[in-house]
Design brief:
3 helices; single chain; 25% strand; 134 residues; globular; 28% helix; alpha+beta
Length: 134
């Protein structure tokens, strides 16, 4: 996950907790979002923000401190601070997560996320080519 867009709202401690904790997928998850149970993420300034746009993969943190990973049917705007955004290449894996599955977030830079996305696209092209050969 790439930190942001409101990672500053959580401070160093919030980011340490988020990237250093294991989370479990809850039964309350659906196509809108994956609700996670685990260590609450502390906020340095509060969890509410003025509503802004939400990208696929955004990780909102409501007042409970429990992260919600937003997926395909997410709302278009939201008023909770977003600590990070899961990289595009990992979204299909997270969309398949089932209740009880556990996960950890690893911090990556935008440059790393772009490199991973290019590799994933190249693998997909190879797969498409291989399928056309049969």
């Amino acid at each position: 996950a790439v930190p942001g867009p409101q990672d500053a709202a959580f401070g160093a401690e919030g980011l340490r907790v988020f990237f250093g904790s294991r989370y479990e997928v809850t039964a309350a998850s659906d196509r809108m979002g994956v609700r996670l149970e685990g260590r609450a993420i502390p906020s340095a300034v509060g969890y509410d923000i003025i509503s802004d746009g939400i990208a696929a993969g955004s990780v909102q943190v409501p007042a409970s401190g429990k992260p919600i990973l937003l997926l395909a049917d997410r709302q278009t705007t939201g008023g909770y601070a977003k600590i990070a955004t899961v990289i595009t290449a990992d979204l299909p894996l997270l969309a398949q997560a089932r209740p009880g599955d556990s996960l950890r977030f690893a911090e990556v830079s935008v440059r790393q996320a772009q490199r991973i996305a290019r590799r994933a696209a190249a693998r997909m092209k190879l797969l498409e080519y291989a399928c056309l050969q049969f």
